[in-house]
């Protein structure tokens, strides 16, 4: 399909002339002033996080809306889409880093998968930093900025350590305590399932087919999903198809028929029934709501 959908930025293209390999770190206020496209839906091919220290407004991640509050932090995994609508001046910190940024530093290539806020589930990725942690959180970001402003040997590794420290502190204070006790093997299996869905949602719709790819039984897969995310495997597949449908509907250049075809539905009416059953509105109504 030739027509474009939501724009997806890479870590170099989002800022003209940016050359820092695999990392972008900035205070939030100047970043917002320079990037007026933030109010429109867009995606990233990199990990992305923001710690707000001042400001108000609203931001939307994968069509879930959140009210901006001071000392709120939100995380995005590659592939998610979002838009921001701010009221007044904004302050805080922003970090972009590529999937490769930690790969040369950590022996465990799946280390970031242990953090619930990087699973790509928007409602688990927006967290409020408690008062007792705020001073330390700000200090970590200031230390990271200092490493960029006064480059020294090992500076990027220091930034990696500060980031990991921040991730672990957030997970300890704000993460789901029950999920933190989930065995590593189960976390990896769920992450692999989510990766397979992202890769094959357009062609594979049955849980048993994903179970075969994971070398487990359908019952095992379903129990895993219910235990870790409170959803069946079928619901997770359906949710991913629905999310892509919403992303495509943002692009007014695409007709509903073209979107149905792109998502591998048998016909336009089948797609309409699917969308309405799961959202309570037609694709046309959703599109009008988004562009209202």
From TrEMBL:
Please tell me the species this chain comes from.
Answer: Chitinophaga japonensis (Flexibacter japonensis)
Q: Which domain of life is it from?
A: Bacteria
Instruction: State any single GO MF term.
Output: sequence-specific DNA binding
Family annotation (SUPFAM superfamilies): Homeodomain-like, Regulatory protein AraC
Record-annotated HTH araC/xylS-type domain positions:
191-289
What PANTHER family does UniProt report for this protein, alphabetically?
Answer: ARAC-FAMILY TRANSCRIPTIONAL REGULATOR, TRANSCRIPTIONAL REGULATORY PROTEIN
Give yes or no: UniProt keyword Ion transport: no
UniProt keyword list: DNA-binding, Transcription, Transcription regulation
Protein name, please?
Answer: AraC-like DNA-binding protein
